[in-house]
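Would you mind writing out the residues of a protein together with its fold in token form for me to study?
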Amino acid sequence: MNAEPRPQPPRPEALGFLTRLALSPRFHRLASCIPGLRWQARREGAELFSILSGFVQSQALVALVEGRVLHFLASGPMETEDLSRRCAIPPAPLVVLLRAGAALKLLSGDRQGRWHLAPRGAAFLTVPGLEPMVRHHHVLYRDLSDPLAFFRGQTETELAGFWPYVFGTLAQEDAGLAARYSRLMAESQVLVAEDTLRLVDLSQRKHLLDVGGGTGAFLAEVGKVHPKLKLSLFDMPEVLAGVPAALRVRLGLHPGSFRTDPLPQGADTVSLIRVLYDHDDATVAALLTNVHAALPPGGMILVSEPMSGGDRPDPTTDVYFAIYTLAMRTGRTRSATEIGERLRATGFTDVRLRKGDRPYVTSAVTAVRG
């Protein structure tokens, strides 16, 4: 067995000035005595502890969701004993969970011993996709149970099984798995569509082809905003089988795999919504070439997904989504700059990067076939 490498001794001269200060116990003692520095030190300490306790916070959220605590409180204030009966959680540990929920500002307690749903908890129940995402993430948590083994590539990730369409027949082998993942994707697409349509103007476009668009959730939202826009959907046949009947009359459905089949012609806009980060570089390069061939001159490609911060890592996308896509084992989270460079290399021009107001929902990159 190979011995663990010995840690190298500190080399302060190789570090930045502020980092050298942070390594100094003497500086920390001094900072605790000076008002301005004391505030900064306390804030840094609180943020470090928030990182440390993040997993526990997320697990408390899982318990609140699966115990349906927030759902029960949505009907009105309740006392601990009543919640205990409904959630099947003994009163003493339930109080700990409720106080944790109050600390997370999802609920609140009053002096009469009742618990109330807080605005943040109400938003959690209302925003599409959040609750299914929490329920889905038991799998990611299990994959990260040994984080060092995970990053060393020694973990056979369970989350990889939740990507049924990459591996052809898996959707047919486990229809329940495919349906569960499709439902999660469909509900989260509502938020993605709302933000994408704020970032990109489609009012002058005639025909939008959504590639890899699942059961049409994104196009359904686009159709509400642009009722005159012709809409088409390209995805695997077994995926298109799940398109709701009411939506089928609005969409042109084109079965196929962008890995092996050419894309249908005729659209002046092609959208890739949360598609690129699910695939490796070779697949992405081939897909962009496929899109370029399908578009007419002046046609636009729209890429919308959570993106890395690149040279300035983003605290949401470069932690959550980058690790999530690593666990999926099929793709990776890319920056808008890298996506733009890949579009230029494919032959697209007029590349525009559009950072979203909520990067954890989506950002967008557009380009034009010259």
Observations:
- The chain has a mean pLDDT of 88.
